[in-house]
Amino acid sequence: MAIASITEFIQSQGVDTSQSGWKTRLTKPPQAEFDPDKTYYWVLETNVGPMKLKLLPDEAPMHVTSTIYLTEMGFYDEVP
After folding, report:
1. Separation CA 46–CA 17 (nearest Å)
2. Which of 14, 55, 13, 68 has the alpha carbon at shortest distance from 76?
3. End-to-end CA distance of the chain, in Å?
4. At what angle do helices 2-13 and 61-73 cross, to 10 degrees?
């Protein structure tokens, strides 16, 4: 539900990530609705191995929405 709505928003924006400076022109996503029965994790691949972070949509739903949005957009790809 939440991931699908974020993915739908991304597709509706038509952002060309091949263009220079695309990261500075992103639109704030609408806050997603999270399933209270699900646990959400953010898995980051780092140069020292993966990190698995538990996201807390009950505590910070907009932060979790933004984290998923930026990750799905590729915002953090190739970040040193």
Report:
1. 22
2. 68
3. 31
4. 50
Band of residue 13 on the pLDDT scale cut at 50, 70, 90: very high
- What pLDDT digit, counting tens, does each position of 26-80 carry? 999 999 999 999 999 999 988 899 999 999 999 999 999 999 999 999 999 987 7
**Is the C-alpha dihedral spanning 1, 50, 15, 60 positive or negative?**
positive
Mind giving me the DSSP string for 6-63? HHHHHHHHT--TTSTTGGGGPPPPPPPPPPTT--EEEEEEETTEEEEEEE-TTT-HHH
**Residue 32 CB: number of other CB atoms within 10 A?**
20
Look at residue 3 in the predicted model and tell me its pLDDT: 94
Taken as a whole, the chain contains a residue count of 80
